[in-house]
């Protein structure tokens, strides 16, 4: 079951964070904010602890969180979600995704992802014993609808979508999502959608949940998490919603993964989910930090595709690799700390070894801009020494 292609191994984020800590490099690798979420949310968790909410929460999550998730989805997207039968609180989005893949796919099933894909997606598909069918994004990091259509077969059980997309920062447009939805309906597949960056979109980009498209709510499991939206990634309060029968299947499996988690954090996040200002302010500030990092990367000789969402920008380091005689982006990332004192993550880590996408992404590196401007300026100054 365990893959020999590195799908199930130490994550690239852990590897690069260890490297950053060991070398004292500026860590623009693993995506986590260097400023914590709002005080009132932290106070609410402390109050929940003091109020004695320290034992197991119900398996599907505390009622106020499930209601807050349903309210959030109705308010923002017009989605009609029953908080009692169609919502499941999870240990981060990671558990929701893994539990769904394990519950709903298995040997003989094909699961399509958009490549590069978030690493836990591939690991969960491998754990389920299903067949992973990655569909490469185009070189400019958009959906290749023809490739998607060509990849879908009668064995496709699930299409896994991630928008806003990690690692590329691509925000799929309604038109692109319509194309995914059309394939899902034609092939009668489930859709699992990872929307953890739903609030972190920039400029004119709009986050469209695929569950809002015609004929999709009945076949879609929507996953999100409070980690990114409220800068509390360590709390691991995530969730999933979708049709009751699918949620029941995932809940059944989740019982034996963690059963439940975060009994004091869940009510605090329930409170936070009514807050529209915190995520809006975060997105605005992230857009500025994106601009800062993108400009710095360009000055340092990288080609960037400006992202419309997430924490991340993908930058092409081909010129540096050639000059330094390096094989690929992974080698560049291993050398960057010693060369200039910066850590990034190779985009090839989000690709299947040897795939078309791995080739297209060979010289690309993902950098995060969810750091304070002075940290980004420090990183940019160091990177400039490459030129
Ligand atoms: N999906 C994507 C695309 C992510 O980037 C991340 C975390 N960075 C997750 C899922 C995991 O979220 P959580 O920490 O809530 O498990
Ligand atoms: N999702 C974060 C990232 O992409 C890291 C989460 C992790 O370390 N697994 O950087």
From TrEMBL:
Cofactor(s) annotated in UniProt: pyridoxal 5'-phosphate
Annotated GO CC locations: cytoplasm
Similarity section: Belongs to the class-I pyridoxal-phosphate-dependent aminotransferase family.
Coiled coil regions in record: none
The protein's name: Aminotransferase class I/II-fold pyridoxal phosphate-dependent enzyme
Cited Gene3D superfamilies: Aspartate Aminotransferase, domain 1, Type I PLP-dependent aspartate aminotransferase-like (Major domain)
InterPro entries for this protein: Aminotransferase_I/II_large (IPR004839), Kynurenine-oxoglutarate_AT (IPR051326), PyrdxlP-dep_Trfase (IPR015424), PyrdxlP-dep_Trfase_major (IPR015421), PyrdxlP-dep_Trfase_small (IPR015422)
Superkingdom of this protein's organism: Bacteria
Alphabetic keyword roster: Aminotransferase, Pyridoxal phosphate, Transferase
GO molecular function: kynurenine-oxoglutarate transaminase activity; pyridoxal phosphate binding
Domain Aminotransferase class I/classII large, first and last residues per copy: 26-382
